[in-house]
Structures are given as C-alpha cells and as structure tokens.
Design a protein that fits this description.
Layout lengths: L1 E2 L3 H8 L2 E4 L1 H5 L5 E7 L5 H12 L7 H9 L10 E3 L7 E5 L5 E5 L1 H4 L4 H11 L4 E8 L2 E2 L4 E2 L3 E9 L6 H10 L3 E5 L4 H10 L8 E3 L6 H10 L2 E3 L3 H13 L4 E5 L5 H6 L2 E5 L4 H6 L2 E3 L7 H25 L1
Parallel strand pairs: 2-11, 2-14, 11-13, 12-13, 14-15, 15-16
Antiparallel strand pairs: 1-16, 3-10, 4-5, 5-6, 6-7, 7-10, 8-9
Helix pairs in contact: 1-13, 9-10
C-alpha cells in the first residue's frame, strides 16, 4: 500500500464504515464469458456474427469488454454508421451497421424494462452470482441524444467473476473491528448480493436497487438500512458518502475509475486500486499497488498502532512529570 498522505493512516484507523465496489475488490476482476443463451428468433450463428462485430467496434476497454474480447473473434467486416458508447447512467451501449441493422448491448433491466419473462430468466443467473448482458436488435439509434428505438431481445450473455480467495478473512477482520461494509456497485443488485454473501460480508442479503432511490431522504434511509447497493450511478456514490458523513460516520471509500473521483475526494479516507485510472490514483490518499484489498487490515493495524503509541507516550510523560 502506497500512502500518499500520511494523515490517511490515522483516518483509516478511525473509520467505522467502509464503502467498496464489487469488481476488482471483492472479486478478482478477471471476468469470463461462460454462456451465450439465445432468447429470441436470432440464430446462434447470427448472434456470434453480431457479437464478433460489436465487441471490437468500441475503444473503451473495461473488464467486461475484455471478457467479451477473449470470447468472441475480431472480424470487423461491417461498416459502423452510428454508435453510442457505454455510460454508467444508461447501462448500455448501442451501434448501427447500416444495412446489417442496429443493436443494443447492456443491462437487461435497462433495455427491456417491461419484459417480465426475460427479466426472470436473467434473474436466475443473477441469483447464482453471474453478471448478465442482453444483446437486442433495434430499428434505430441516435448518438445525438443517446436514445435507441424499440429493442427486440436476441441473447443473454452470462459472465462470471470469481470471489478473491482472501476476501472472507479480510471482511471477517473488519467485522471484528466493528467496521460496517457497504458494497456499492453498478451491477444488478441480486448479483452483487450473492457475491457479497460468498465473500462472507454480514447482512449481504440486505440489498436495494439504487434506481429506486430518488430523493436525498431515500438515500439517507437506504444507506442506514442496506448493505448492498446495485445499479448505482457515479453521482449517487458521492451522495452515499455524504449521507454517511451526515449520520456521524467516518467513511473510507475505495474506487478505481474516473467516475469515483468525486466520492473519493468527499470521503474521510480514500483508497484507490493501482490498476484503475490515473485520476483515481491521484485523488486517493492510499493506493493499493497490487490492487489487492487483502493488505487493508495491515494498513488499519499500522494506523491504530500509531494512534495507540501517541496515547501511551503522553500518559507516560504525565506520570514521569
């Protein structure tokens, strides 16, 4: 752990709420496509052909994109006529290939909000801790305003992410030190809850979909009641940190992306993964060089040793005097 601001050690020793992401913190972040499940009229060959084109048409490579790139092949025979990049607010990306059609790829509950049968099918995988993407056909997309036409489901892409081997013991340490854990993620809340349970986080079954939290009061009530938060937008992360501080908590926040910077700056102690963006590493007080959360207990231990030694020294001098 690289400590960029020395007072962060003391702050971390006093922290009683730790906010963290799922991917790369609880899990290894090495995502892998395990299954492609057709859920429409599109044939397996066509699904593969479309995904071969979509996967390599975007420049923003994140862990999910990397998993798709490892599974599908780079063909790039089709000409891109319009595209909408992925956004944390939209939770999908879209692309048009002229006469080859237009497609949307992203979270099922954001693309097909009213298709209960499809969402139930997606939920069965989420309950097993898998991340699920939906590939859907659409009649049109518009990059000008980020909207897509009527989507028609084609396939569910099931992605796995393994829980870190050292995660249960790390979270058991924080539980013993009376530090509450809050898991804040952009993924499906069901998936995040299952992964958090596997990692041994207490009250991981208490989850909420952040899209249902509209007001500051909703956020304040939810942050006090729930442990797992899914479908969180970057702006909400900052609101969660602020709500906890308003409730008198000392908050540590972990993050790895540009969209985590505001929340990192607002937290009492900020921790970044070295594998994340440069902006997050610059903004954080502590950087985990191997992006391994398991070294956090030793940082907390060091902070508490410093605080305890400072308390012991004045008491010794007082007696001596």
């Amino acid at each position: 752990a690289l400590v960029q601001e020395m007072e962060a050690i003391e702050a971390l020793a006093r922290v009683n709420v730790l906010c963290l992401d799922k991917t790369g913190t609880i899990t290894t972040g090495d995502l892998e496509v395990v299954e492609v499940v057709p859920c429409g009229t599109m044939s397996d060959e066509k699904i593969r052909e479309v995904m071969n084109e979509i996967t390599f048409a975007f420049n923003d490579v994140n862990p999910t994109q990397q998993a798709l790139m490892n599974y599908f092949e780079k063909t790039q025979k089709w000409q891109t006529t319009d595209l909408i990049p992925f956004s944390s607010a939209r939770k999908y990306r879209a692309i048009a290939f002229g006469e080859h059609g237009a497609y949307v790829l992203g979270a099922p509950e954001f693309i097909m909000k009213n298709d209960e049968e499809l969402l139930k099918k997606s939920e069965t995988y989420a309950l097993q801790g898998y991340r699920v993407l939906l590939l859907a056909e659409t009649d049109q997309i518009s990059s000008a305003d980020g909207t897509v036409g009527t989507p028609k489901p084609a396939a569910l892409i099931v992605i796995s992410d393994c829980v870190r081997e050292e995660a249960p013991s790390t979270f058991a340490y924080f539980e013993a030190q009376h530090v509450a854990i809050k898991v804040i993620s952009g993924d499906n809340p069901l998936t995040v809850s299952e992964v958090a349970k596997e990692a041994g986080i207490v009250n991981a079954e208490e989850y909420v979909d952040a899209t249902t939290l509209q007001t500051d009061e909703d956020i304040a009530n939810a942050i006090a009641k729930y442990t797992v938060f899914g479908r969180v937008t970057p702006g909400q992360k900052r609101q969660f940190v602020q709500a906890l501080k308003d409730q008198g908590k000392t908050v540590a926040m972990t993050g790895d992306g540009v969209n985590d910077v505001l929340a990192l700056k607002d937290a009492d102690c900020s921790v970044a993964m070295a594998s994340g963006s440069d902006a997050a590493c610059q903004a954080a007080q502590v950087v985990l060089l191997e992006s391994n959360f398991a070294c956090m207990p030793s940082v907390v231990l060091e902070g508490r040793r410093v605080v305890n030694n400072i308390q012991r020294s004045p008491s010794l001098f007082l007696v001596k005097n």
